[in-house]
Amino acid sequence: MNHFTLDDIHSYSKDIGSILSHVTLHERIEDEQRIQLPKVLGTGTIERMQIRTGMEIIISDVELSQNLSARIEETSGIFELNYFLSGEAVCHFHDRKVTIVEPMSNVCYFRDMEVCLETKANTRCQLVEIRMSPENLLHYFDREVDKQAIQHILQMKKGLIQSYQLSPMIKKCVYDILHCPYKGALKKIYFEAKAMELINLFFQENDLLYTSVDPSLPAGDVEKLKQAKEIVLRHIDEPYSIKTLAKMVGLNEYKLKNGFRQLFDTTIFGLIRRRRMEKAAWLLEREGVNVSEAAVLVGYSNVSNFTVAFRKQYGCNPSEYLKRVKSFSQ
């Protein structure tokens, strides 16, 4: 099969070529673009919302008629979270090859390097991207210790693509972006809020900001609290009591409860409930169980209580969540 190149794309549509090559990130342009793919390239649309100079959200839903090879030279640096919902792509950099397949979330930070992205033809490619300059990412953190932690993370991520499973929390946030109910200025505010939610989930779910905790927490307690979290996650279905857990890690109950909240920004029960709801969402979506069955399987004998807990986490009832998933996959 023949391949399109980025030069070919530029010849058919300057806007699409600019978006694919990342050159628009640091330029001030119109706040929102919606570009229909020319028939010669395939079908579908690419939407772009610039939150501010150096921060944008790209929503792609296209099907190419030929494979696309895009060679990108990253010089100024872009921190990117992308959510690959369908399709297949291959990324080449530093003599490495990374295959990206649905459904997956990826984080990357490229600076002063050349990247080649190959997107497969004849398959629907659905992708949501959050692109930010490092300066824009740091803008959302006030404390110097947090800024230092972010800079350290960027240094660790430089020149890498790391893939993560799309958790139900992340998937719901991505769906919210895809089904945004607003237009104009309100849409920009909404997109920025959702982008921050996704960034927060990325750092939270991958435990990347331990270094930014209050220094009043002794290092020994931090290690014990991390151990407590691991134990909680291994026993979600039959959790230990606070008293038992405290004895297991060598902390008193007060230090365990307060330290846990301080370090992980949630209570032990909050973590258990969140993971149970994530399991419930997975059961509903992937295993095809009904709401009553999902409730029982995650430890709820009362469906109403389960529905309340699910709505508290995902902002919608289980049945509505399933409708959103099904409507998106159509």
UniProtKB/TrEMBL annotation:
InterPro entries per UniProt: Homeodomain-like_sf (IPR009057), HTH_AraC (IPR018060), HTH_AraC-typ_CS (IPR018062), PchR_regulatory_protein (IPR053142), Tscrpt_reg_AraC-type_HTH (IPR020449)
Top-level taxonomic group: Bacteria
Ranges for domain HTH araC/xylS-type: 226-324
Pfam families: HTH_18 (PF12833)
Gene3D superfamilies the record matches: Homeodomain-like
Keyword vocabulary terms for this entry: DNA-binding, Transcription, Transcription regulation
PANTHER family on file: REGULATORY PROTEIN PCHR
Entry protein name: AraC family transcriptional regulator
Organism the protein comes from: Brevibacillus reuszeri
